[in-house]
Amino acid sequence: MKAVITAVGGFVPSYILNNDAITAMVDTTSDWIEKRTGIKERRISKKEEHSTSYLASEAIQNLMKNYEVDPLEIEGLILATATPDYKLAPTASKVCEKSGLRNAFGLDINAACSGFLYALEMGAAMIESGRYKKVIVAGADKMSSIVDYEDRNTCILFGDGAGAVLLEQSEIGYGIQKSILKTDGQGTDSLLVPAGGSRNPANMVSLLHRKHFIHQDGSYVFKKAVASMSEVCNEVLQANELTKEEIDWVVPHQANLRIIKAVSDNLNIGFDKVKVNIEKYGNTTSATVPLCLWDFKDDFKEGQNILITTFGAGFSWGATCIKWGVMRRQKMENYKVNQFQAALCLS
């Protein structure tokens, strides 16, 4: 038994923060941002009540509406986020409430930009165990809540958004294949929010020194991301007995266009097979991969091999292969066609 993606959903706020607006905040240029990152604009949640739980619930409701999913049939929600609504009280609890998932458990996981991939592996294992039939895996982050808009090295990178997928059982080989996930805590100091946790609780000093925003050693993270993603992709291809020629699409974490291109070059997979939407969303952390799946869902065909890879704070990284299955809407259409053909035969 495999866990197959049968529905996808997504949501981004309506407010667009483009590069020209960024140049009014910090000393940079629109051309420099686009050349260094590939980002032209990012979506920002301007309303205070639009928390991470709001973004996630909107993505899930988009999924349920478009694929006629009954919220009461969902048994579990795994929410990947690095920007929870509260330090104490799972954000998934509010998402379940807002989305009408009254029969589902909900839990948060935080693996930064690799969070959705980690959550997908957890959800797949639950489905494969046979104990659960319908699990939603979501990635959502309100990165604007932890971005320092006086720091030109980080404020140009991040945006807000959410994406979600529904996992169901498949017995014909489609779905999540073997994954490889990795963690190296030695990279923690290179990409983190230094204060606000148990190690450095909030105080006047941490507030004055702006320690509640993202701090990043950009050059080191860039090099580590390219090397780690390239290596783990080769490992997961070998684990799944696939060659690069058999990969139909690559869905990488959208952190920086130069990272994505470097990984593509290292894998010797044509860039025409790589899905990219960083130019309009920026880095939405846990949401980048599900937003890509949502944006490009119509390009993915039954039986195609999709390679997903991520890298994030922690350091956390990994890769998985998906054999794309039949989406719920397509199942319904096929059912109607079969019923119509059966009726013709009977007549």
What layout of secondary structure does this protein have?
Layout lengths: L1 E10 L4 E3 H5 L6 H8 L3 E3 L8 H15 L9 E5 L10 H9 L5 E5 L5 H14 L5 E9 L17 E11 L4 E9 L7 E2 L11 H5 L6 E2 L1 H22 L9 E4 L4 H11 L10 H4 L6 H8 L9 E8 L3 E8 L4 H19 L1
Parallel strand pairs: 4-5, 4-6, 11-12
Antiparallel strand pairs: 1-7, 2-3, 6-7, 8-13, 9-10, 12-13
Give a summary of the structure in a few sentences.
Keywords: Acyltransferase, Cytoplasm, Fatty acid biosynthesis, Fatty acid metabolism, Lipid biosynthesis, Lipid metabolism, Multifunctional enzyme, Transferase. The chain has 347 residues and is of the alpha/beta class. Helix content is 35%, strand content 23%.
Annotated CATH topology: Peroxisomal Thiolase, Chain A, domain 1
Q: Unreliable stretches, pLDDT < 50, 5 or more residues? A: 342-347
Proportion of strand residues: 15-25%
Structural class: alpha/beta
Q: Span from first to last CA? A: 38 Å
EC number: 2.3.1.180
Protein name: Beta-ketoacyl-[acyl-carrier-protein] synthase III
Main location: cytoplasm
Subunit structure: Homodimer.
What features would you describe in this structure?
With 347 residues, the chain is an alpha/beta fold. Helix content is 35%, strand content 23%. It has eleven helices and 13 strands. Strand 12 (305-312) and strand 13 (316-323) form a beta hairpin. The active site is at 113, 253, 283.
